[in-house]
Amino acid sequence: MNISVKHFVALVTLLFFALLSKAQDSDAITFEAKLSKDQLGINERLRIDFSMNKDGDNFNPPNFDGFNVVMGPSQSIKSSWVNGVRSYSKTYSYILMPTARGKFTINQATIIIDGKTYKSLTQEVEITAAVERPGEEASADAVADDNLHLVAEVSKSGPYLNEAISVVYKLYVSPSINVSNFRALDNPKYNDFWSQEMPVTKYSVQNGLYEGKSYRYVILKRVVLYPQKTGELEIEPLSLEVTVDVPTNKRDFFGGKVYTSTNITVSAGQRNINVKELPTEGKPENFGGAVGKFNFSVTTTKTQLNASESLQAKVEVSGKGNLKLFQLPELSLPSALEVYEPEFNEGIRTTTEGMEGTVSNNYTIVPSFKGKYPIPGITFSYFDPETEKYRSLNSTEIMVNVIEGPNSGSANTSNPSSYSSQKSVVTASDQFHFIKTRAHLKAITTESFFGSSSFYMWFLLPMLLIPIAIIFGKKREAIGSDLAGRRIKKANKLARKYLSAAKKTLGNKDAFYIALEKALHNYLKAKLKIETSEFSKDKIEELLAQKQIEKGSIQDFISLLKNCELARYSPFSEVQMQEDYNKASEVISQMDKQL
């Protein structure tokens, strides 16, 4: 069939405009909402997809009034090229569960594409009574979500300041599904708490009830917390990604159920506790922050010895409570007893009920003179949260009898309150001898001594020693009276000790970070003169800022404390431990220069 040129040109023109119109249609931007169904039972789930053919920003979903969001938003993107034409779609999907029967409107969602705001159309949904057999099989995610629950069980919702509470995280699993794996997505930080984790070495499956139904459960995590602030405190949620095997309606060749695997996220939810202040009524003046139930004693290894021999005096607190969060009372001793800096020892184990064990200071004492010296009794006070009352425990006076040694004329052994620092001159029985009446004297030549360099040296030496002795005496007196300085020196010594201990335990995560945390805390005791019970990170940051420490040094110090906490429940490499040790040494050096 012959086609004239005129008809051919008309045909080409029509084809060109058709292709042009198709290209323009393909470039048109669309944004729409699609429902899996517009009518469903109250026991069914609704899926809604918000789709667009071009990528956009600031997606804003509707409120979904009348529905609970079971899952979402999940995002999917599809892109392809067919015959040189690009096809693109991006979808935000939600799974919704109706909360009541009736007709509901799902309002508009918005998104910004190429600077313009696009809105989806509203959608009408009718919710009917529960249906016996939903029209479609529930998704694997929905089944897993209904049969898997992560719960944080808190032992006490209203503790006192520094009273122990435990948090036990349990994963409840219905017998109808299986859990094959899980991993932590977000571990709680426990701000405003002193925390100690009790590692779970083996996951033991147990049977229990959840909301009245039979479940299997495993304990994933156990933590003991001591609140360091009063008021309402927040326990952050623990979140897990769990791989779940969900049964389907399909059967294998042998008639067994066919399972499908899916990953879902579960959270323990945020928990709040209301921390009560310790009562002011009946609070002893010497109360140092101890909360729990304790015993107190002061003992010595011996009560009778010779001068220059040594004895050990132990100040010990034992029992159950915040054993790491208070300071032991100090001994007050006569000046005639030389006392060395005490050595701190602790034997503490942590259970779900809190810390229990002993802490002690061991003093080495060396008497200088013969006599009887009393070690006065001292008082230890604590708050018992069970009886909600303060208790004070007193040690008995211990008399130390030094049976051999030089006498001290100023020592008053009958009066325990007389601690004189004066030392008398000791006389010997053979001090005076018979004086000879016949003297064999020889003349002294002036050339041999008087006027010589030796004469002037011995003549001037006492004059030079007098100011040196005065300066040395004043300095010694200032050191002896500077109790705060001695405490700072002690804390600095402990900080160096624990930092040295941390270096020796490199490679052992738990021991290293416990030693590192102690070193940091004792350094703060030395420099900021604050009690251990005040060690919340917010308080530390505030006090360091008041001391005009550089912001970078403060952040480094706080990050080290966070690493010490994080190391209790996260793996840390030996490289990371070495970096934290080097960082601690550098931070302490920088802060020393600034202070």
From TrEMBL:
Ribonucleoprotein among keywords: no
Signal peptide range: 1-23
Superkingdom of source: Bacteria
Pfam families xrefs: BatD
Keyword match Chaperone: no
Membrane-traversing stretches: 455-473
Keywords, ordered alphabetically: Membrane, Signal, Transmembrane, Transmembrane helix
Full protein name: BatD family protein
Organism: Sediminicola arcticus
